[in-house]
Amino acid sequence: MAAKSSSPLKILLGGLILLLFLGLVEHFIGWGNLLSPWKEIPSGTIALTIFLSFVSYWLRTVRLYDYFRTDMRGQFLLGLRLMLQHNLLNNILPMRSGEISFPVLMNRYFQVPLVRSLPALLWFRILDLHTLSLLGLLAIGHYWFSATTSNLLAALWLTIPWWLYHGQRRLHALLDPQHANRLISLSHRLLKSLPQSGRHFWSSWFWTLTNWLVKLAVFAWVLLIFVDMPVSAAWIAAISGDLTSVLPIHGIAGAGTYEAGVVAGAALFSIPIESVLPGAINLHLFILASTLIGGALSLIIPVRKTPAISNNQP
User: Fold this and answer.
1) Sequence-distant (≥ 6) Cβ neighbours of residue 120 within 8 angstroms
2) Most Cβ neighbours (<10 Å): which of 119, 147, 151, 167?
3) Torsions phi, psi of 308, nearest 5?
4) What's the pTM value of the predicted model, to 2 decimals?
5) 16 lies in a domain?
6) Is residue 154 part of a domain?
7) In the chain, how many domains are there?
8) What end-to-end distance do the CA atoms of the chain give, in Å?
């Protein structure tokens, strides 16, 4: 009961954060003043940043399509529709509740059951968090440690997915799928949906890294349009903004908490909050606009369900 009652409370807190955020921006900055710099940005620059955002959407779809290649063969556009809709719900709904849409959409469009889609989603999120942390470590490690220590830490951190991959494969091999214990049998089925070959492991990691390099480069670029700051600071600010998505409570559509993350990242470089905050808000508005455009475009992609295929490997 406590778990059920906490969800409405979190949603209420998220709504209050959103309202407080909107009011504070109007009081201290003014929405008119905040949005006015957009008029000075060349339309070609805006179009290019949006295009690059959609390149990152395409890269995420490639990762998904490659992982579920048997289920999704010949249905890349439908996979793109799924990814755009999942991205929309994930960015708009509070407390990462939009993640639930991934297994639902995988079952609706490709008849992939929860026992296969949920482990895949967990694996994607582990790779996402690891890549974000790795890129952040590489960017700021030299400011906190010596070059040798920073490179050593990055190299050690880089090996984590490899150890996880081999660890889950060993565990999967030890479990008996026909075991009378239902928990052991279910665990075997869940682990079977994680990467079971080197090709699947390396390809999912490669597409994750490629996607984040493009995505963060776009976010840092947009932030630099509004704020005079070093590129490294913009890079870290973009990373710390994205990391706020793992917080247990945040505003609806990440309002307030995303900006706080961007400001916190820039603060590592002693950049004043009053200089960064307007850029952080405009960056967030750019992300939400791209998300909404992607969600709208997904509706024109036709749906053609594929027949269910049993016992597919990811």
Assistant:
1) 67, 68, 193, 194, 314
2) 119
3) -65, 140
4) 0.86
5) no
6) yes
7) 1
8) 36
